[in-house]
Amino acid sequence: MYHFLPRRLITTLQTVIVLVLGFLMVAPAQGIDHIVAQSITPIQISSGGPLGVYYPTATAMCKFLNRSVRDLGITCAVRPSRGSVENLNRLRQGDVDFALVQSDVIQSAWNGSEYLNDITPYEGLRVVLDLYTETYTVVVRANTTIRIFADLKGKRINVGPPGTGHYTVTKSITKALQWADVYTKTFMDFDSSDQMAALCDNKIDALVTIIGHPSSMFSDDNKLCDVRIIGFSKASIARIMSDQNYMVETVIPKGLYSTALNDISTLGVNAHLVADIRTPDSIVFEMVKSISENYRHLQLLIPVFQDIPFHQTKTEGRPAPEHPGATRFFDSAN
Question: Which string of DSSP letters, residue by residue, matches 214-282?
Fold first, then answer.
């Protein structure tokens, strides 16, 4: 294994628990000697916050893999995080085996990014699967006069701390739209778990999140006040996409949420499951295989996958090369 010592300390308890559970499940049939002799390899996926899509997606992936712990000797655990940038930092440092990351962050890391702990090009980064489009989602209070993104000039926009995916994408958007620096001085850095409360308490005028839709963030159970999602003008979208080629145009459809009275034109980035080249091919192969075998269940658990067939998750080598373990799986499946 390539893990560093701190990583081993983190995963020791996980390994012990799996060994005990494995004993309870199979000891009567196979005996204790088989269980004790079995080598368990603990792996981790760096995900996101509990209200986003990354965390439940990673949880489902681990659940699928853990069903075969007896046969594979692999146990999977999910680590929550603040998002793509933290996930990629963990992956590069060897603290996790897989990470869920936005395409813009992957592209920046591949070329070398000032927002990552290591600013040099991340040449060991590999894409395992293309997952779904994450929508750049701008939320305002329902009673505001703000209608489109251009109306936010000079407003208090929560984009998260510098270095987060929300921050970097928003900076790219305002750069493409040629906003003067004075308009970005009112950017706020509330944590994602606090930003909805800040919006409802009038501490900010808008919040930005990059998520797959539909999202539980906008369910009645999580609603703290009446809010609306706003979009971009067609001219702004064209200008941004011309400047930032990793972005795609997308629509939040009318009726998806009770406040979406019309289609909302906005932008998106793609979400990917990634690994380091040091992550063994065999582990990546088994991860992709378990997702493939349980993909229908994933579609039922995570609505953003419902209209995406599994074959579309094979990467085309963008925004980083495909991991050899994923290549091996798709070659064997053909």
Answer: S-GGGSGGG-SS-EEEEB--HHHHHHHHHH-TT-EEEEE-TTSSTT--S-EEEEEEEEEEEEETTS-HH
DSSP secondary structure of 110-158: HH--TTSSS-S--TTEEEEEEEEEEEEEEEEETT-S--BGGGGTTS-EE
Burial of 234: CB neighbours in 10 Å, binned 0-12, 13-18, 19+ = exposed
Summarize pLDDT for 44-56 with one digit per residue, the tens.
Answer: 999 988 877 899 9
Question: Other CB atoms closer than 10 Å to residue 85's CB: what's the count?
Answer: 27
Please state, in angstroms and as integers, the Cα–Cα distance from residue 101 to each residue in 22, 42, 46, 199, 227, following that order. 32, 21, 9, 26, 27
The CA radius of gyration of the chain, in Å to the nearest whole number, is 21
Per-residue tokens: 102: 């936005």
User: 271 with 54: CB under 8 angstroms?
Assistant: yes
Q: What is the pLDDT of residue 38?
A: 57
Q: How far apart are CA 213 and CA 132, in angstroms?
A: 10
* Cα–Cα distance measured from residue 83 to residue 69, given in angstroms and rounded to the nearest whole number: 28
Q: Residues near 29 by Cβ (< 8 Å), separated by ≥ 6? A: none
- Sign, CA torsion 302/318/137/311: negative
Task: Return the SS3 of 69.
Answer: helix
Q: What gap in Å lies between CA 87 and CA 47, rounded to an integer?
A: 7
pLDDT digit string (tens) for 164-217? Answer: 778 888 988 999 999 988 888 889 999 878 899 999 999 999 999 988 888 877
Instruction: Name the average pLDDT for the chain.
Output: 85
User: Residues 269, 186, 230, 190: what is their CA dihedral angle, to the nearest 10 degrees?
Assistant: 70
**Contact yes or no for 177/153 (Cβ under 8 A):** no
